[in-house]
Amino acid sequence: MEVKSLTPTVSVAPQILPEEVAALAAAGFRAILCNRPDGEGADQPGFGEVARAASLAGLEAAYLPVASGKVTDAEAEAFARLLDRLPKPVLAYCRTGTRSATLWSLAEAARGRPLPEIVAAAKAAGHDMAAVARRIANGGRTPTGGGGIRHEVVVVGGGAAGIAVASSLRARKPDLDIAIVDPADIHYYQPGWTMVGGGVFDPRRTAKTMASLIPPGVTWIRAAVAAFEPENDAIILDGCRVVTYGKLVVAPGLKLDWGGIEGLAETLGRNGVTSNYRYDLAPYTWELVQGLKRGTAVFTQPPMPIKCAGAPQKAMYLAADHWRAAGVLKDVDIRFCNAGAVLFGVKDYVPALMEYVRRYGINLHFQETLTRIDGPARTAWFTRIGPGGATETVERRFDMIHVVPPQVAPDFLRVSPLADGAGWMDVDQATLRHRRYPGIYGLGDACNAPNAKTAAAARKQAPIVAHNLLRDMGAVQGGDAIYDGYGSCPLTVERGKIVLAEFGFGGRLLPSFPAWLIDGRRPSRLAWLLKERMLPWMYWKAMLRGREWLARPELAA
């Protein structure tokens, strides 16, 4: 008997036997719900036998027979009513558990539970709800509308990667029919938030309306994606609208999991708790830095992967440089609590960073992950991994804390057929095509290519996807465009100097400039000018407009 939990009060199982009922009662179940019609299989006990065993064990039993593969809306509604009435917890069963899981999924959709949560719970119980995704998206009822709309190319995501790839496609084939799907009204230049938190940029420099950035001739579908149907060349939007495509590009970015740290969401933006990973909080970072004259400042970094792996320490260096200039550095205890085992993943840049760690008197704490925070008490708790893998809890007091949340793929991607086992878009790292579905491509932070998740990576990936997609359509000639893993992390080690880290797969250095101009392994004033003045301009005026300066793809022979 294999029982799988969907929620704390509802579980599903394959066919149960009368002699197994007592064990279910001992496990704490109070009701059994049968969804398998009597006589469906030659070796199947009838519901009456199971019900008698349930009565003897003190369990309530209910019978809602459903034909295999034919779950109706009325049956899902009846299932919901039974769940409301029956004592909890309830075990629902059928031949394999799938019908019961389907009924639960549709019932939960009618209650308003989001599709990704439903699909994830069913998937964890071993049941794939892809076949009823449209019904789940439609509030648990069978859609009655038409066939939706179609575009030659659909791009999911209107962030840096999505708009850049749409622009690169239009630059190569101006008459291509493209739609971008994204519900956001505002587009943010997120690399600028470090500078906002350091008092360098005004936050307004990092935001523009989405409408002003959608490439000319590209359709903007202002909606959120609920699910993917790659077998049908379709995506399902919230509200169960369906969009079909000839080619699909998936670039939705990633999800900042603020809820992954206990107590964090309740205290963000006050009690000395801040993060440069949010537009509205970066100014608070600068406010805290200016206001701190003595005390403890904690900076955290969660487990990888995260967007811009250098951002957690960039905030720290700029803050420390301000305290140095203000003459209070000696009175500030700076602590960097990093879930990783090293300061930076590419060893060539570590010596320069360590010079600043020593200059600012920063205390490094590796393999410490923030798990809980109490803002009013100014206390944070970390899980530290020690020698041999043993863990312990470390309590740290703070006067200010800069938190970087754990990060995951968006829910609708994580539970979809397009995801790998960890929930990321499953692509070939060289061509950025999906590994299993022809005609689907991925780029940006949500894909599983082993590169740093940076805007610079998306800038390089966009022309590669554009070329390979059009090549697959027969619209351009030549071999595949190949991605070398390029990413860039301008590490702001002090106001006016940057260590310009540029690297590809395996940590191979991929500098854009000769060493006599900018040696990325050393702090540079010129690299600061690049970050402060040139990169924002290149982002808004080049990358998002299909101008591929320093980003032309290399083609395989």
Report what the structure shows.
- There is one protein chain.
- Helix 4 runs antiparallel to helix 5.
- This protein is of the alpha/beta class and 557 residues long.
- Strands 6, 7, 10, 11, 12, 13 and 24 form a 7-stranded mixed beta sheet that branches.
- Helix content is 28%, strand content 23%.
- The N and C termini lie far apart (56 Å).
- The chain is built from 15 helices and 28 strands.
- It folds into 3 domains: 4-137, Protein tyrosine phosphatase superfamily (Protein-Tyrosine Phosphatase, Chain A); 150-254 and 409-555, FAD/NAD(P)-binding domain, CATH 3.50.50; 258-407, FAD/NAD(P)-binding domain (3-Layer(bba) Sandwich), CATH 3.50.50.60.
- The mean pLDDT is 95.
State the helical fraction. Answer: 25-40%
What structural class results from the helix and strand content?
alpha/beta
Count of discrete structural domains: 3
What CATH architecture of the largest domain would you give?
3-Layer(bba) Sandwich
Query: Globular, elongated, flat, extended or rod-shaped: what is the shape?
Result: globular
Strand content: 15-25%
Low-confidence stretches: none
Biggest sheet record = 7 strands, mixed
- What is the number of E strands? 28
Helix run count: 15
First and last CA, distance: 56 Å
User: Could you name the CATH class of the largest domain?
Assistant: Alpha Beta
Mean pLDDT: 95
Radius of gyration: 27 Å
Protein name: Bifunctional protein tyrosine phosphatase family protein/NAD(P)/FAD-dependent oxidoreductase
Cofactor: FAD
Organism: Roseomonas acroporae
Domain Rhodanese: 76-131
